[in-house]
Amino acid sequence: SYEWSDDVKSTLENIFKIKSFRPKQLSAINSTLSGEHAIVVMPTGAGKSLCYQLPALLRPGLTVVVSPLISLMEDQIRSLTQKNIPAMLMCSTSSKDENQTALKTLTDDKTDIKLLYVTPERFAKSKRFMSNLQKCHAAGRLQRFAIDEVHCCSQWGHDFRPDYKFLGILSNMFPKVPILGLTGTATSHVLSDVQKILNIPGCLVLKTTFNRPNLFYQILEKPATQEGCLDVLEKLLKYRYKDESGIIYAHSIKDCEDLAQGLRKRGLRVGCYHASLDADTRSKVHQKWHEKIYQAIVATVAFGMGIDKPDVRFVIHHSISKTMENYYQESGRAGRDGLRAECVTLYRMQDLFRVSTMVFSNNGHLEQLYGMIKYCLNVKVCRRQVVAEYFNENWGNTDCNYMCDVCIHPNKIIREIRLEEHIKNL
Ligand code: ADP
Ligand code: MG
Ligand code: ZN
């Protein structure tokens, strides 16, 4: 028990209206309140935000939260405002007035703002911001830095953002201010890289299991032709996933558009999402999917961070992901509500060659590619076990509970797509 333990408990119940902590949340809160640097590693949806939002309320002063996306910051501000927690954000799209006000909170010891959200480029590109931050620190009002999606520091992560590299100066400029990094990326490679970049080597790492017991994993044999693929997708969407929402990931923009068009011709309601659509179109597609006007979105990996639909019942990979890390993140968008959801990969040998050529020519991520290859070629070992090994975890064989194709058919996994049978079997 710590001097702040009673306050932690009452804040959890009265402000956040939460009865009990999930794994590692309390450890994270205690370590950051003790002034230690720490990195919290939990799968998406596990509750990382609470680990810095709650401590922010316990003491006078500011928590500066670094976040890579304006939409993520806006979601957070919205949910904090609902709880009557004063918070602000500062970014390139804020008005001049808003940014002025945000800048002032740094030097105003009368402000009631507890959390200030900023994008990482502030630290390199805004002198005003940095000098106010120093004033805030000098006045003893800089409580801590929370760095969300902290894997963005590392080129080994699945979502490298160059601006995150600037954050390395924080531990030198503000040596007594604790840093709390948060990420859903669990590979040890990425974590040690993040520690190096942030200059917090050997800091406390609080990691929960990455097992998602409600996700069913399956590999289906991918037909040789696009028409064949469309047949499979059509059957999946019309029968197995009737009236349910999901995502179909495709390798390229062209694949995306072709598949979406093909599925529409077959009477399915699907949207298309990729980086070459303008922001307005993308947000409309996203919205229609939320409203269930679209059953599925056919997307490239550009459809990713910031998806907050809890009832995604299926994620189908029309082509395998580039690395196991990417696969875990992409498929992990299914079943955030904790109910059963399915992660199906259409796999054929040619796709492995295509991806490996790509990875080789960009010269990197080989280990991570091997993880993906192992997952696809595997016919004997429980698929969760393969994922667990990749994350250096041990989930135990018994945990699967028939939630992967290998465990359902231990002697011969059924990869042919006699789908009517599949529907009955599963
Ligand atoms: P992450 O950042 O890890 O993806 P979030 O911080 O966005 O996850 O939290 C996901 C959801 O879980 C939020 O709706 C949050 O209110 C909820 N949550 C967090 N911690 C708890 C808890 N201990 N008990 C119940 N719900 C929680
Ligand atoms: Mg989060
Ligand atoms: Zn299994």
TrEMBL record:
UniProt main location, coarse: nucleus
Name of this chain's protein: ATP-dependent DNA helicase
Organism encoding this protein: Plutella xylostella (Diamondback moth)
Keyword DNA-binding set for record: yes
Homology family: Belongs to the helicase family. RecQ subfamily.
Reaction catalysed by this enzyme: ATP + H2O = ADP + phosphate + H(+); Couples ATP hydrolysis with the unwinding of duplex DNA by translocating in the 3'-5' direction
Swiss-Prot/TrEMBL keywords: ATP-binding, Coiled coil, DNA-binding, Helicase, Hydrolase, Isomerase, Metal-binding, Nucleotide-binding, Nucleus
Enzyme Commission code: 5.6.2.4
Domain Helicase ATP-binding, chain residue ranges per copy: 29-204
Subcellular location: Nucleus
Species classification: Eukaryota, Metazoa, Ecdysozoa, Arthropoda, Hexapoda
Domain Helicase C-terminal residue range list: 231-377
